[in-house]
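Hi V.,

You were right to ask for the full record rather than a summary. Here it is.
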Amino acid sequence: MTANPLAPDWLRQPDDVNALAATVWPRNAVRAASGEIVLAGAEATALAAEFGTPLYVVDEQDARDRAAEIKAAFDTAFTAVGSHATVYYAGKAFLSTEIARWMTAAGLNIDVCSGGELAVALAAGVDPAHLGFHGNNKSLAEIDRGVEVGVGAIVLDSVVEVERVAAAAEKHGRVQAVRLRINSGVHASTHEFLATAHEDQKFGVPLVDAPDVVAAIRSHPSLRFLGLHSHIGSQIFESDGFAEAAGRLLLVHAGLLAGGEVPELNLGGGFGIAYTSADVVTPIATIAQELARVVAAECAALGIPVPAIAVEPGRSIIGPSTVTLYEVGTVKDVVVSVGDTGDTAIRKYVSVDGGMSDNIRAALYQADYSVRLANRASDAAPALIRLAGKHCESGDIVVRADYLPSDVEPGDLAAVPATGAYCWSLASNYNYLGRPAVVAVKDGAARVIVRRETEADLLRRDAGIPDPKATA
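Predicted structure:
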């Protein structure tokens, strides 16, 4: 069959529209002989029947294994060059108390960037000494609480935070360890809105200002300077950008040694994952080895010891481990003009019971996702589809382009993989939809780790509704 001319250039019509690309789906996802998708031993239809849809389903073992593998990769790579690495899980990707416990059990620290994320980590029982606290505009209350509970490191994002953190540390009688976030000027190969090291952006201080800001940090007895921090972007497939940023930071790092210790260098996160079969991802072990090689070579050239290294992956751990299940509500064929030839083609719109309230990345970043039928296999011909949400926005699209069997129909179950990162954490109540539940699956057993929001939850915050206790 000829490919639909409305398909983007990167999308290939699949030979088997039922196949699950191993690079995109959780490691424990299979299509059973019955035709339905089974996630870590749990049937998709059974999960939807028990917990409802939309539903985030996390392959627990996959998430735990990815965390352990990333830690092992950086441990091995930097031990080989005479140093060591600390891996922080970037909680902004998705954080719950269970996720925090999985990460700490794998030997990772946790990175938080708000008072709410700090509260979740503390509620999970994470040792505050194993927390890093980010944020370009941390409130005085957030800084005070972070210092009070004893977070292991606070990332200073601006000059004004030097005084604020120093004052909080003095108030609580602590010496607070801090990192300084640097805007390295390295432009990662990623979406413009995801690239966070451009000169014209809100994060960090310019590289040229680092010596003066570090001198200010060192002037406070209540602060201990750990080192420089860089984050060059997100969803990055190559190691080149990380290597370039490391080289620039190490040059400044070497100069700072004259004024005191600089025990570490934090290279941030942003390691990319596959959202579609067209994405080619560099293995984490390869990135770790390349970074270790570059850091060791730069340090040798500068005549300085290799510092301890910290990294902050989030998406690369939790992203591939999760699938979102939706129920199909409507299917319609839309005739679309193709170029200026007068020809037309059909795009099949498949609408589901979620949308931009549970996955805003397609609307926000024009991100591409994949989709497969989860309740059955089909030998019908592939049809180009657009998986749409139920919200009152024309841009409410979950999957912009993929192929499903042409017999897709209302009542089918659609599964969108690689939704573990920046989906639940960016979820909203737009159109007063409750945010979906998150279920962890392992060895065929499923349990709720974040419960579904109900209408009662949505109404509870509305001050216009009388409190029944007040009128009793």
